[in-house]
Design goal:
By secondary structure, the chain is α+β, with helices and mostly antiparallel strands. The chain is about 30% helix and about 30% strand. The protein is built from five helices and seven strands, in the order βαααβββαβαββ.
């Protein structure tokens, strides 16, 4: 059971999100070199990038906090089609990261459901990219009705990683049992 509270992120959260995401990103690709991880974090998860995300009306970021500190976040783009998927008007589930000591507490599910609710409000199918070796995340997404629909390369520094593209049709959110 999670004891985290959720709220919509604001522009003033950009620096805290940059610090948090830099700390937890390595969990999603532990086999990647420290140099490649550092390059990715510096270029994609810095405060300026977070300011851009948080200023974009097409994106929603949900924070989970416990004892006044960020323990996770989720980002969804309300309208962002993928060129390899034969679906129009889709939302992209962009990011979901939870502090390691909060894995298994329900925080990830809370964040995921809150972000999916944004897409549901717009009646959109949702796609996401997930590292092919991240079996835990793939199993999590499948519980929510996502299916593997393709592949893409996700560049982390100089390391081209293979992601699955997973897709969920528009419709009511059926929570896993």
């Amino acid at each position: 059971m999670s004891y985290a509270s959720l709220r919509r992120a604001k522009l003033v959260d950009a620096a805290a999100l940059a610090e948090f995401s830099a700390r937890v990103f390595y969990l999603s690709c532990p086999q990647t070199s420290a140099e490649d991880l550092a390059k990715y974090v510096a270029g994609e998860l810095n405060a300026a990038q977070w300011e851009s995300i948080l200023s974009d009306a097409n994106q929603a970021t949900v924070l989970a906090e416990s004892a006044g500190k960020i323990v996770g976040f989720a980002v969804i783009a309300i309208q962002r089609d993928h060129p390899s998927l034969e679906v129009q008007g889709a939302a992209e589930f962009r990011k979901l990261y939870v502090e390691a000591n909060h894995h298994g507490t329900g925080v990830g599910a809370q964040l995921f459901e809150a972000a999916l609710a944004v897409a549901e409000a717009h009646r959109r199918p949702v796609w996401l990219g997930v590292f092919q070796l991240n079996k835990r995340a793939i199993a999590f997404y499948k519980k929510y009705g996502f299916e593997i629909a393709g592949e893409q390369i996700f560049q982390v520094g100089s390391d081209p990683q293979k992601d699955y593209l997973m897709l969920r049709a528009a419709g009511p959110l059926l929570l896993p049992e």
